[in-house]
Each structure stands twice: as C-alpha cells, then as structure tokens.
Amino acid sequence: MLPARAHEYYVPTLRISHPWCRATPAGAPNAVVCITFDEVRAADRLVWVETPVATAAELFDGTVAWPVDFAIVSGRDTELGEAGTVLRLTGLTQALELGRSYPLRLVFA
C-alpha cells in the first residue's frame, strides 16, 4: 500500500515537510502520521494535534503512549516516522483513504 503525501507548510520558526500516513481499513482504531520538521531556526515543542478524523492524538514508542509533547531542536531535522517515537491518531472516526487529504492542526509551544 502506498502512502498518501501532502506538501510542505511553514510556521515562523520551522518547516513541516510532507506529512503523510498510510490508508487505513474500515474500523481501524489508529493511524500513524509521519512528519519531518526541518529548517528549524529556533527550538520549539509540538504540544497538541487535532483533526476531525480522530478523537485524539498521542506519542507512542511501541510500548508506552503519552500525551503530545515533542521537542524540536534548533538547527536539526527532527522526524516522527513509523519507527521509534511515532505520532499516532487514536479513535479514528473514518477510514483514511489513499489519495485523500485530511485536515491536521499542529499546535506549537
């Protein structure tokens, strides 16, 4: 299955590069969002994520889940991918389809 890809987005201190996630089957409870933060000019923290396609978001390391609070280091590319610490949308309200775009709001400290 191929991932659905978006574009890049800018905030004053960094660029959000090509956020994407895999399509999900109907009834899937979760989806992992892959995202890269680059061109980071000042340290920041991702502190909240919301989308109409999920009831919540969390960070997950394969064993333990915790609320979104992710450090973004100045001068370094930082990634949330499919391995290591992941950004997981929980309580999906619908299946995510290949080739579709879905709104995702990221809140930084």
3D architecture notes:
With 109 residues, the protein is mainly beta. It is built from no helices and 11 strands.
List strands and helices in order, with pairings.
Blueprint: E1 4-5, E2 8-11, E3 14-21, E4 30-38, E5 44-50, E6 54-60, E7 65-66, E8 70-72, E9 78-80, E10 86-92, E11 105-108
Antiparallel strand pairs: 1-3, 2-3, 3-4, 4-9, 4-10, 5-8, 5-11, 6-7, 6-10
Q: Would you summarize the structure shown here?
A:
This protein has strands at 4-5, 8-11, 14-21, 30-38, 44-50, 54-60, 65-66, 70-72, 78-80, 86-92, 105-108. It is mostly beta strands. The radius of gyration is 13 Å and the shape is globular.
Give descriptors for this structure.
3-stranded antiparallel β-sheet, single chain, 109 residues, globular, mainly beta
Assess the beta-strand content as a share of residues: over 45%
Largest sheet: 8 strands, antiparallel
Q: Structural class, judged by helices and strands?
A: mainly beta
Helix segment tally: 0
Roughly how much helix do the residues carry, as a percent range? under 10%
Helix and strand element order: EEEEEEEEEEE
Mean pLDDT: 92
Supply Rg: 13 Å
Q: What are the segments in which pLDDT stays under 50 over at least 5 consecutive residues?
A: none
